[in-house]
């Protein structure tokens, strides 16, 4: 069976379907379709904000890491709740966030905020966000 990705035929090497080794085999896709992706869960909670639903997307050992900060789960939930209530952050996120890559272990998103490009990497453990790190750069410093 021929497979296509963005209209380009994917080559197979020595009769081995290489996609299975990088997580894109049909078996993996069927399993992924049964459960909502991490990015899908975030989009869902931001579309209909609920602080406790947001909390439940995160592993009990969750930590948020920035250049000079380390936030616990409670601190991150309170921060996001404040941003949503005071600044309509959920509307900004829904409009601007772009999914770069995601599988069962990691999710990478990116958006522009003011003069900065924000990249967020979330490590996933047991289907929940376990660690999240965010990097902010101006475009000239990105390359």
Provide an overview of this structure.
The chain is of the alpha+beta class. It has a single domain (17-142), classed as Roll (Nuclear Transport Factor 2, Chain: A). The protein contains six helices and eight strands, in the order E-E-H-H-H-E-E-H-H-E-E-E-E-H. A six-stranded mixed β-sheet has the order 4-3-8-7-6-5. Strands 1-2 form a two-stranded antiparallel sheet. A hairpin with a 2-residue loop joins strand 7 and strand 8. Residues 1-27 have low confidence and may be disordered.
Q: How is the main sheet built?
A: 6 strands, mixed
Which fold does the CATH topology refer to? Nuclear Transport Factor 2, Chain: A
Level-1 CATH class name: Alpha Beta
Average pLDDT, to the nearest integer?
A: 81
Total helical elements:
6
N- to C-terminal separation?
A: 39 Å
What is the second-level CATH architecture?
A: Roll
Helix content: 25-40%
- Shape summary: globular
Keywords:
about 140 residues; Nuclear Transport Factor 2, Chain: A; 6-stranded mixed beta sheet; 6 helices; 8 strands; disordered N terminus
Topology (elements, then pairings):
Blueprint lengths: L3 E2 L2 E2 L16 H9 L3 H10 L3 H6 L1 E8 L4 E3 H15 L1 H8 L1 E5 L3 E8 L2 E10 L2 E10 L1 H4 L1
Parallel strand pairs: 3-8
Antiparallel strand pairs: 1-2, 3-4, 5-6, 6-7, 7-8
In summary, what is this structure?
By secondary structure, the chain is an alpha+beta fold. The protein is built from 6 helices and 8 strands.
